[in-house]
């Protein structure tokens, strides 16, 4: 009997008794529900990539919607990235309470309300400080959305397909990051911001039609509602009473922890520690940095041709990595995907670092063309990159690197944070874990300019390679597997 068959028996589904068309219908429904809930994840992807638009547009035309001039210092550009993560910390801690108290469905709506305000401020930004405040509010929504959507995406699907269906959130995030950079070719940064605000307003109108999470209904004593939802999601070929009993049993140990006392449990502490280490590997292997600073990294790596277009390619082409993750995450498991992802990243970073390091500038002497001015204007020197003709190698390396990220390390730490804890404490335990991750990500983003200056671009790539390599060792030795396991 295969693993999937064993899992189905644990859920009360007799193996090979459900007609294929019925299973496809159920899975299609689960996919549609998770996809709809993940629309806010699409806007999150837009949020991460949006600074690329600001960087590109301000270098050409630094006017705002109102026509005044806007200038951002390098530290303010870094703050556009790090404030998203800092705001996420506050959003996560708030969502830990809201998701538990209001339920998953209502939390999806509450999560995007600060983002509506944030994107409005970004679109109507008159100066840098208004823009930074808008990014903070957008960060609050990013944190709340991460918790609410990942929790919903974990609790809706069948166990055997939970990993595959949950990765829809990753696809929506990647598409958002790519679309933001792509439409930036035609639209200015403030129109993109106002467009995101409109998407969130439409999302608020759609979410009330989604069903509540059945596991949340079970642990809150609403078994009749839970049964009706499970009948839609699991069909007629499951012993729903058995699944309800199993979920209750898995949550009994934590049921008495109505506050934050669950943090005293050693098993919970170990899981939070594992997730914290994964988030360190994720942040300092350049995952968020490459997406948020694609245009700047291309420039620092010596790419001088149409950086906006190539930044779009950097975000679009590696989406193929998601489909590798889609096919492997439930079959091979989370650990295998993480190990493959980090190994390929480490090798690629070593290549990129070496390529940039060997791209030494050559000093060229220039003599004034006018013969009469030679005496008064002596020859001067300028630096010319010896690797200008091989810019495509750098672009290709970055594409491979982001492709590798999409196979595992970019999305799986967030997914594991929702799978490591039972329903009754999932929202709060996940809020603590992911808040730590967002704080770490904010640190990595804010330090980008300083690390790039201190290490040089080549040294920064090598540092990311070292972190990725150490991450492989950590994943193999310390990360618990959750594939095909009921998580409660």
Tell me what you see in this structure:
With 488 residues, the protein is an all-alpha fold. It contains 22 helices and 2 strands. Helices cover 71% and strands 2% of the residues. Strands 1-2 form a two-stranded antiparallel ribbon. Helix 3 runs antiparallel to helix 4 (74-102), helix 3 (39-58) packs antiparallel against helix 6 (128-155) and helix 3 (39-58) runs parallel beside helix 8. The longest helix has 31 residues, at 448-478. Residues 1-15, 362-369, 371-377 and 380-388 have low confidence and may be disordered.
Q: If helices are DSSP runs of H or I spanning 4 or more residues, what is the number of helices?
A: 22
The tally of beta strands, per DSSP, is 2
- Main sheet characteristics: 2 strands, antiparallel
**Distance between termini?**
23 Å
- Segments where pLDDT lies below 50 for 5+ residues? 1-15, 362-369, 371-377, 380-388
Average pLDDT for all residues: 82
Using only C-alpha atoms, the radius of gyration works out to 24 Å
Q: Which oligomeric form is depicted?
A: single chain
Strand order of the largest sheet: 1-2
Secondary-structure content class: mainly alpha
State the shape: globular
Order of H and E elements: HHHHHHHHHHHHHHHHHHEEHHHH
In percent terms, what proportion of residues is strand?
A: under 5%
Helix content: over 70%
SSE layout:
Blueprint (H helix, E strand, L loop, with lengths): L2 H8 L9 H18 L1 H20 L15 H29 L1 H20 L4 H28 L6 H5 L1 H16 L5 H18 L7 H6 L3 H12 L5 H13 L13 H18 L3 H6 L1 H7 L6 H10 L3 H9 L5 H25 L2 E6 L13 E6 L5 H17 L4 H8 L3 H24 L1 H31 L10
Antiparallel strand pairs: 1-2
Helix pairs in contact: 3-4, 3-6, 3-8, 3-9, 4-5, 4-6, 4-21, 5-6, 5-9, 6-20, 6-21, 8-16, 13-21, 13-22, 15-16, 16-19, 17-19, 18-19, 18-22, 20-21
């Amino acid at each position: 009997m295969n693993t999937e068959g064993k899992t189905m028996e644990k859920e009360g589904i007799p193996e090979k008794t459900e007609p294929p068309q019925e299973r496809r219908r159920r899975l299609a429904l689960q996919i549609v529900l998770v996809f709809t809930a993940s629309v806010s994840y699409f806007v999150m992807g837009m949020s991460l990539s949006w600074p690329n638009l600001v960087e590109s547009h301000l270098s050409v035309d630094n006017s705002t919607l109102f026509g005044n001039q806007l200038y951002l210092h390098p530290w303010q550009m870094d703050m556009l990235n790090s404030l998203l993560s800092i705001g996420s910390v506050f959003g996560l801690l708030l969502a830990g309470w809201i998701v538990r108290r209001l339920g998953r469905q209502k939390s999806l709506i509450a999560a995007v309300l600060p983002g509506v305000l944030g994107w409005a401020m970004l679109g109507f930004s008159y100066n840098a400080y208004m823009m930074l405040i808008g990014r903070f509010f957008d960060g609050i929504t990013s944190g709340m959305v991460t918790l609410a959507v990942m929790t919903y995406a974990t609790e809706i699907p069948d166990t055997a397909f939970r990993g595959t269906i949950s990765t829809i959130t990753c696809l929506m995030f990647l598409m958002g990051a790519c679309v933001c950079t792509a439409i930036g070719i035609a639209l200015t940064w403030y129109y993109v911001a106002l467009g995101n605000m409109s998407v969130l307003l439409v999302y608020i109108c759609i979410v009330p039609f989604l069903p509540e999470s059945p596991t949340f209904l079970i642990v809150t004593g609403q078994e009749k509602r839970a049964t009706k939802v499970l009948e839609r999601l699991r069909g007629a070929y499951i012993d729903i009473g058995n699944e309800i009993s199993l979920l209750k049993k898995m949550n009994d140990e934590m049921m008495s922890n109505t506050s934050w006392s669950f943090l005293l449990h050693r098993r919970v502490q170990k899981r939070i520690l594992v997730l914290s280490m994964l988030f360190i590997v994720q942040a300092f292997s350049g995952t968020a940095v490459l997406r948020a600073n694609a245009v700047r990294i291309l420039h620092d790596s010596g790419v001088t041709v149409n950086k906006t277009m190539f930044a779009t390619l950097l975000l679009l082409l590696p989406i193929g990595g998601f489909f590798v993750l889609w096919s492997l995450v439930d079959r091979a498991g989370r650990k295998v995907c993480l190990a493959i992802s980090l190994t390929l990243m480490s090798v690629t970073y070593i290549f990129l670092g070496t390529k940039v390091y060997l791209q030494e500038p050559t000093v060229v002497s220039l003599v004034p063309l006018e013969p009469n001015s030679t005496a008064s204007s002596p020859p001067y020197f300028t630096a010319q990159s010896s690797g200008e003709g091989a810019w495509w190698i750098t672009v290709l390396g970055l594409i491979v690197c982001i492709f590798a990220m999409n196979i595992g390390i970019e999305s799986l730490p967030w997914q594991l944070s929702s799978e490591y804890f039972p329903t009754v404490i999932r929202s709060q335990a996940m809020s603590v874990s992911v808040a730590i991750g967002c704080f770490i990500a904010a640190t990595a983003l804010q330090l980008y300019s300083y690390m790039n200056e201190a290490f040089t671009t080549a040294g920064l790539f090598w540092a990311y390679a070292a972190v990725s390599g150490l991450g492989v060792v950590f994943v193999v030795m310390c990360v618990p597997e959750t594939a095909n396991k009921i998580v409660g």
